[in-house]
Design brief:
globular
């Protein structure tokens, strides 16, 4: 039996990149749980999902943007040419999504992918608040998904 090195799709992270991301996520999760909720000038939270293929719990630290009371917006900017894994996990198991704000316990949220005029309005606020995200978007071939999380 021969073992072949699996080719990765263009625009997707390498095995080393994924390993490094996991290490950084673990460190960031510790900081958030310890009450430190900023990174590079952005507020961060921990998104808890269930893996769409594995069925295993996933914890992802992500920047968030306020969207009214008890509502947060996430930008699907990671993942190279594809939407990030956390986005697919949310879409596969929307009823099992929770978040942790700095120093707080996990609580359930309802995700909603934004589209149309609602998406555009929220995107303009995010791009104004964090121009670097708009710069990343301008270099991408895909439109970053915006997901509103509302406390249940």
């Amino acid at each position: 039996m021969s073992t072949q090195k699996q080719q990765r799709k263009p625009g997707t992270p390498s095995a080393f990149s994924r390993w490094m991301q996991q290490k950084m996520n673990t460190r960031m999760n510790r900081k958030i749980r310890g009450g430190h909720g900023t990174f590079m000038g952005m507020d961060v939270l921990i998104l808890n999902t269930i893996g769409r293929r594995s069925g295993q719990p996933r914890q992802t630290p992500l920047a968030w943007f306020p969207d009214g009371e008890n509502s947060w917006v996430l930008v699907g900017s990671g993942g190279g040419s594809q939407n990030p894994d956390w986005h697919a996990n949310i879409m596969a198991h929307p009823d099992q999504v929770t978040i942790e704000l700095p120093g707080g316990d996990a609580f359930p949220v309802t995700p909603q992918q934004l589209s149309g005029a609602d998406r555009e309005q929220v995107w303009q606020r995010i791009a104004a608040a964090q121009p670097r995200i708009a710069k990343y978007q301008s270099k991408s071939e895909r439109e970053y998904p915006l997901v509103r999380l509302t406390a249940r």
